[in-house]
Amino acid sequence: MISPVLLLFSSLLCHVATAGRTCPKPEELPFATVTPLKLAYDPGEQIVYSCQPGYVSRGGMRRFTCPLSGIWPINTLKCTPRVCPFAGILPNGAVRYSTFEYPSTISFACNTGFYLNGTKSARCTEEGKWSPDLPVCAPVNCPPPPTPKFAVLSISKSLATNSSFSIDSALYGYKAVFKCLPHYAMFGNESITCTEHGNWTELPECREVKCPFPSRPNNGFVNYPAKEALYYQDKATYGCHEKYVLDGPQEVECTKFGNWSAQPSCKASCSVSVKKATVIFEGERVKIQEKFKNGMLHGQKVSFFCKNKEKKCSYTEDAECIDGTLEIPKCFKEHSSLAFWKTDASDVKPC
Ligand SMILES: *[C@@H]1O[C@H](CO)[C@@H](O)[C@H](O)[C@H]1NC(C)=O
Ligand SMILES: *[C@@H]1O[C@H](CO)[C@@H](O)[C@H](O)[C@H]1NC(C)=O
Ligand SMILES: *[C@@H]1O[C@H](CO)[C@@H](O)[C@H](O)[C@H]1NC(C)=O
Ligand SMILES: *[C@@H]1O[C@H](CO)[C@@H](O)[C@H](O)[C@H]1NC(C)=O
Ligand SMILES: *[C@@H]1O[C@H](CO)[C@@H](O)[C@H](O)[C@H]1NC(C)=O
Fold first, then answer.
1. What's domain 278-347's superfamily in CATH?
2. What is the pTM of this model?
3. Which of the listed residues 112, 141, 199 should we mutate to test ligand 4's pocket, taking the one with most ligand atoms within 8 A of CB?
4. Among protein residues, the one whose CA lies closest to atom 7 of ligand 5
């Protein structure tokens, strides 16, 4: 037999259960998920908040039961992003970042002379680790430099420290200088440098260069080594017979272009047709008939005095001995030696 009291009690319980209000869809929290997620929950039903991957809970309840009131309790759960290890410093390079939190990405660059061994960027993963692994900036290396044909290595130096180095391990900025073998001329830059790309700048070339035998100048001579051929940097010397002057350098050299650095010639001296005149030679007044009684050499210059009749003053005009010819200025008037009363232009006041 069932007690009426019990009956009443159980019907009351039943009434309470059906009279409780349902809970609504729970409040959404940033970076959290709710399970199970429904539009409505009966009183007594449980939900669990959990942080999304990459986020961790900080304080607050995670598990709730829908109360008879149908109102979810206030939720103080906070999901915050995971933080990856500090990665703000890259030796010999730089890191670009705004935060180290999930899901940020940071990027890397190396200083000149270093290269990135690894990737340009890394991402903070859900597990709070950098992926891929952080790179390093490794020093740029050049392979041992090739030596050009017909050349020898003369210097190998580090530009930064000015110290010589073993050419087997050339770092960025290292420099090697080459010299061509005798008779060979260099085309291109004699030095090569290990670049930031890990290669060398362009190699020079050494080519054998011959020059033709120099020809003897008229009224002169040329000396050169008695060999079957003349090569790059061989030298020849020139000279002239008496009364002739060398026009050009005394010594010439076989250039890398296979010609001689100059082609000197011998120039004749000038006989002076004027019998008597005061002229300026190398800044001094001289008597032309005495100073140049053996003639003027090619290239020598004098200044003749001329008269300006209207103004009764004198001025000078230049004359140069050019390969046997001295042109006397037209304004110069030579007085007959009998005309002793006439004043020579060189004695008239200058204009
Ligand atoms: C580059 O990185 C790889 C992998 O981390 C490593 O094995 C290698 O030694 C590094 N090279 C240099 C030059 O640092
Ligand atoms: C490097 O050394 C050479 C001689 O050994 C010297 O003439 C030159 O000035 C030095 N350069 C620097 C940058 O120290
Ligand atoms: C050779 O190259 C160096 C740098 O590598 C440069 O400073 C120099 O001016 C170059 N010389 C010539 C003749 O081009
Ligand atoms: C060196 O490498 C860089 C980059 O790969 C290239 O642009 C350059 O032409 C190379 N230099 C030489 C001399 O090969
Ligand atoms: C030698 O040859 C080079 C190249 O052809 C030319 O530029 C130069 O002027 C020549 N030199 C002489 C002295 O003729």
1. Complement Module, domain 1 (2.10.70.10)
2. 0.64
3. 199
4. 257
